[in-house]
Each structure stands twice: as C-alpha cells, then as structure tokens.
Amino acid sequence: MCGIAGEIAFRGARAEQEPVARMTAAMASRGPDGHGSWTNGRVALGHRRLTVIDLSEAGAQPMHDPGSGLTIVFNGCIYNYPELRAELGGDTVFSSTSDTEGILRAYQRWDEDFVDHLVGMFAVAVVDERRERVVMARDRLGIKPLYIAELPGRLRFASTLPALVAGGGVNTSIDEVALHHYLSWHSIVPAPRTILRGVRKLPPATVRVIDADGGRRDRVYWKPDYVRNAGKADWSVDDWQDALHESLTTAVRRRLVSDVPVGVLLSGGVDSSLIVALLAELGQEGLSTFSIGFDGAGGEEGDEFRYSDLIAEKYGTRHHRISIAGSELVPAIEDTIGAMTEPMGTQDVTGFYLLSKTVSEHIKVVQSGQGADEVFAGYAYHQPAGTASRREALDAFRGAFLDRTHEQIADVVEPEWYTDTDVSRALLEAHLDAPGADSALDAVLRLDTHLLLVDDPVKRVDSMTMAWGLEARVPFLDQDLVTLAAQCPPEFKATQGGKGIPKDIARKVIPPEVIDRPKGYFPVPPVKYLAEPLLTTVREALRAPEAKDRGLFRADYVDLLLDEPNGHYSPGGNNMLWQLGVLELWLQRHGITG
C-alpha cells in the first residue's frame, strides 16, 4: 500500500524530477514509512511507502533491476505473491521477499500478460528501458487508483488527483460531462473522467502501453459476462451457497497475507460480521475489530454498536468501540475534504476518515465488507431490476438510483455548464445495453460492480484509509468471487430483500438478529442533517468569491437549498446541499480556480 507518481517525457525531452517530488510529497500520508525516487532521464518516478510485506529496505521502491532494464512503482498488495514466486520457478532469482518484486519478475517472464497472473489490488507502472516503453496496469475492480494528466510533450501519473495538481501545469477547468455525472449519481464520476478536464483515470482491468513517442494502446484484460455458465446450469441454490461460501472463505484467507497483523472494520452489518466469522473458521485468534458511532440527529441513531458487540462477543475479538461526538465531527470535515482524491458527497465519508484515524493507531491492515451490496444485489434500488424485463433495465435503474434528471440539472447549473444531451443517460445506456448479462438485474449488477462501485464506496474507503496510512482489503471484491457471483442466477441473490445467498451463508455462523433487521448504512447524522456550524461553512463556500468566479451553480438554486438546508434529499437519502457544498469546498481546498 503506497503512493506512486511519475513523469514520462516524449520526443527526446527530459523528465522533470521536481514536479514528481512535489507529487510524491503530496501523498506522504499514503506512505508514512519511507520514500524513494528514480530517473533515467526520460522517465522520473516517485514513491511513498507503507511497509506491510517485506519490511526491509530490499522491498523499497522504486525498484530497479539493472539486469533486465526494468523499474517498477506499485501501489497495492498482491495476495498470491508466494504462489507467484513458485509459478515463476526456481531459476528466477529474487533479491527480496516483497510482492513488488513478484510483479517485476512476472512482467519479465510474461510481458504485458503479467496481469493475468496477479491476484490482488494494484496500480502499477513498469519502465521497460529495453523496449523503450512504460506499461501501466490497474486491478480488475479498480480498488487501487491511478490518475493521469496529459501535458505538452509529457505525461504524469499519481495515486491521487490532488497530487497531480500539486505537480503543476494541469488543466484544472471543470469537465461539464463529469459535472453532469456528479449531479446525477450522488457525486460518482466514473473512469476515465474526473471532475477536472485535464485529469483522467486509468479504467479498472486495463493495461496501457505507452511508447517512447507518446503513442499508446489499451487492453481490457478481464470482463465477466454475467451469463449462466453451462457447467452450472443444474446447480441448486444449495450448490451456489456452498460454492460461494468456499470462494468467500478463500478471498478472506488470501487477504491475511502480511508481515503485520490484519484486523477487521466491523460495522455490525452482515458483510463485515461474516468476514469475522470466516476468519474465526480459519483459526484466527486475537483478531482486532473496530466499530464507530456518532451522536444521533434528526431522530436517527448514530451507531450500530449493539450489533457489532454481538459479533465481537461471539468470536472473542479484541474489539474497539470508537465513539465520536458531534463536536469532534465538524472540525474533522475540513481535513476529510482535503483527503478526498475527488469530491465525494455521500454523508459517511467523514465517518470513514475518523474511523481510519483511530484504527491506524492500532494496526496497519484491515479487511472491510465493501462491495458485497453491488456484487450480491443488496441495495433497495436493485429490487425493481429483479422484476423488470431485460429491455427495461435502464428505466428500472434510473428510476431507483438517479439524483436528478437531465432536465432538473438545467435548474442547478449555469447554462455554460449544461450539456446539450443527457450524457449520463447515454453512458448508462451504453453499459446496460452491452452484450452479455442475461437479465435486467444481471445488467444492473454488472454496471454497479464494474463502473459505479469503483468511484463510490471503493474510492471512498481507499481515500479515507490511506489518509492515515491504513491498508483496507475488500474480500467481497475478490476477482474469483466476483466471477463466480456473476454466473449465479440473479433471483438467488435478490431474495430476502437482497444478498439472499450471503445471508443464508451467514445464518450458519452469526446471530440471526444481525441478519434479520432493516439494512443499515454507515450513519453520520450530523452531516446528513446540516446544522451550525457546518451549515455556515457550506454557505460561505457556495457564496465565496471563488465560487462566484467559477459560476457553476445557479444562484437561485443555491438560495433555494440554503433557505431549506434539510429539505432536499436524493432518493438514496443524501443531502443535496451537502453535495454542492462538498464540490466547492474541495475545489477551494486544493486551490483549483478553473
């Protein structure tokens, strides 16, 4: 787990080390244990290190191998690196026990196909001096980020968008298509776009080869098709339960690989509780678990401790209850916004930030339950797709998920930022109508898992944990588990209000009161129900000179929200005023004036 940065110069130019140094310094929190740099004149690399595997200097980055002419920077964790070393064979010489070197040797052996041999989460850049190219790759589910900026005669990349801004020279004007997505889908901006016109993201499951003259090509190396597998056509629901139970157990076991202890973020919901139960089945003892709670507000409770306590007691974990008073929450919001790799309007981001702060004081690595809802149809908006015909997938999804229609966005943004066409609908339509996906729910789950998930819960958890040098691993997004779940008949997943099969697996190992209750969300009521002094912070941001100069939002719409700050919510329960406020606060925090 780390922060990576680099610059690639084209057409005989030299890579500049100073911008890379600034980008690397901007990501110090992602790698508090060390830093490094490297250049060969045409490429310059920077790295911030969080030591989790091979704690010695032999595992430091950038890792350069003169014999092969390869240099690598890498963010993430390769869970199968011991097996990878065995696969490479005894004639491959290693100088460390790091997973980083495993990737380097895999590239040396299999060239661009090295990604097919990796099990884990990763963003990688390999400098291949002999072939005069740089090869980038991102993991299958986009758990690890990789941002890219095109500049005249060069390209830069980093693990965060603010790091690229810190490097200088980036076009920071607002991308109106990204803004349309942000306002349509509770602040989600899918790859390859970001809210800034001059910064893009490498999409998940993608290898990008960049030649010395700046030419480039992409290859998508993994893509489940969400159709029924002929070999599993006669499987009963019990067969699927057994297979998915085994696959999830493998996923949890894989994420134990570490040279430091691994804990669990225990929310008290089914997903994280099941992870704790499976770790107990695997013989883990003395497991550290962590739960967070806040003051209630608006008649809504701010914690789920009664459920997390049940699991902690049942499995004898070393449990940590983290209670955050409302007086602590508001001062943390400014730093939370600073830690966002992109603006995120969901109300639980500050909760993850404060949770990660405390957890990082005890441990460096945790497992988390993110991704289960997208993979196993756990959200309320999945239910309409379960009864819709295949051709009705788009309408079923939009009706349950959309924050604002294209027409409503015209009332939010100034005319210069309003797109002529409904670009958000067009993107959904392209993904939902793509070949594969047998049913409407299959199509929606494919969309959720491979497009939207990446830039909502996954990005949120990565940003907030890495703000404190904490590595979060997500077993429900294991590549083999996701592939298997994609083949599972959707009706088996959508039962019991969603996540039917995981719930049935859980019934064998966790108390029923944790399972048979209304779905919980990470509750942060003081953000959902805006009050002073946070309301003043939002008001000042939206009326600041920077906001007026930028001119994104119509003044009458902003006034409407400010006059009734808790009167406008998205279908998912997010405060619409907070969504606008976060965007302005984030832009101002990072000095973005475009």
Automatic annotation (TrEMBL):
Class of this enzyme: ligase
Signal peptide positions on this chain: none
Family annotation (InterPro entries): Asn_synth_AEB (IPR006426), Asn_synthase (IPR001962), ASN_synthetase/amidase (IPR051786), AsnB_N (IPR033738), Asparagine_synth (IPR017535), GATase_2_dom (IPR017932), Ntn_hydrolases_N (IPR029055), Rossmann-like_a/b/a_fold (IPR014729)
Pathway: Amino-acid biosynthesis; L-asparagine biosynthesis; L-asparagine from L-aspartate (L-Gln route): step 1/1
UniProt-annotated binding residues for L-glutamine: 99
Keywords, in A-Z order: Amino-acid biosynthesis, Asparagine biosynthesis, ATP-binding, Glutamine amidotransferase, Nucleotide-binding, Transferase
Family annotation (Pfam families): Asn_synthase (PF00733), GATase_7 (PF13537)
Superkingdom of origin: Bacteria
Molecular function in Gene Ontology: asparagine synthase (glutamine-hydrolyzing) activity; ATP binding; transferase activity
Keyword ATP-binding: yes
GO annotation (BP), single: asparagine biosynthetic process
Catalytic activity: L-aspartate + L-glutamine + ATP + H2O = L-asparagine + L-glutamate + AMP + diphosphate + H(+)
PANTHER family: ASPARAGINE SYNTHETASE, ASPARAGINE SYNTHETASE (GLUTAMINE-HYDROLYZING)
Protein family (similarity comment): Belongs to the asparagine synthetase family.
NCBIfam families found in the cross-reference section: asn_synth_AEB, trio_amidotrans
Listed name of the protein: asparagine synthase (glutamine-hydrolyzing)
Organism: Arthrobacter agilis
